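Re: that backbone. Tokens:
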């Protein structure tokens, strides 16, 4: 089976890729905080944030189309969440619409909130996509470990990412076996079969988890993430962190002034 891994471009060689994972994690989290704390009416600042993220993507050599596909995969869920806000938020009416006996009023304050949700989600997902695309997952976990993130949280992330694809493969093999033995099944039969497949998948996953746990214990696993390259914080990381943070502060001050 082929799967689209979140770090498929982590093997590229660029300025962003060579940075310490801790640098990328901390600076991009700071970037997200600046985006979230920016008032929704600071339109120029959001444009500048987009330009900065675009520059970082250009430096990372990650294809723009890949980043935008990831963003567009998330945005429909965000739009569905905020779609009804312009109709239920009280304030000055921007427009009135009627659907039969139902009258809907769109307010300016509701539109501002909807814009606020969409633009911040768009820029935030771009930052997170850049982070995951330029950092291989083991090094990302190692960076979290060096930042004193609780070990249990790191272990859950590690096993979730590692065995999610295994579980998908198991489910697809079961589906192919079912399809090869079934000719035009009835809908009720499909539901019953799907329930049996999910139950069987749960049991297989539980048994696999037990065997993996015993194998790790027998090999002396102590909860530490092992990587071949022990990255360290250097002067390039310091320059990147200070430079990006300074740019964000200047953008924020521009909006305040």
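Recovered sequence:
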């Amino acid at each position: 089976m082929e799967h689209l891994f979140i770090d498929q471009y982590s093997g590229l060689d660029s300025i962003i890729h060579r940075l310490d994972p801790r640098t990328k994690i901390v600076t991009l989290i700071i970037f997200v905080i600046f985006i979230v704390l920016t008032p929704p009416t600071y339109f120029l600042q959001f444009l500048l944030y987009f330009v900065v993220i675009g520059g970082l993507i250009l430096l990372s050599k990650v294809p723009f189309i890949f980043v935008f596909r990831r963003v567009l995969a998330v945005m429909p869920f965000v739009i569905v969440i905020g779609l009804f806000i312009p109709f239920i938020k009280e304030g000055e009416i921007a427009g009135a619409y009627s659907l039969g006996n139902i009258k809907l009023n769109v307010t300016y304050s509701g539109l501002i909130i909807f814009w606020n949700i969409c633009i911040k989600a768009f820029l935030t997902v771009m930052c997170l996509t850049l982070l995951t695309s330029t950092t291989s997952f083991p090094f990302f976990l190692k960076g979290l470990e060096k930042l004193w993130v609780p070990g249990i949280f790191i272990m859950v992330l590690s096993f979730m990412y590692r065995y999610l694809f295994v579980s998908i493969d198991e489910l697809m093999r079961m589906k192919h076996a079912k399809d090869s033995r079934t000719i035009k099944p009835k809908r009720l039969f499909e539901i019953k079969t799907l329930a049996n497949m999910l139950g069987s998948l749960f049991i297989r996953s539980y048994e696999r988890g037990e065997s993996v746990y015993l194998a790790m214990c027998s090999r002396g696993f102590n909860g530490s993430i092992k990587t071949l390259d022990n990255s360290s914080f250097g002067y390039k990381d310091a320059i990147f962190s200070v430079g990006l943070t300074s740019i964000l502060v200047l953008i924020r001050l521009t909006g305040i002034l």
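The radius of gyration is 24 Å. The first helix runs from residue 21 to 37.
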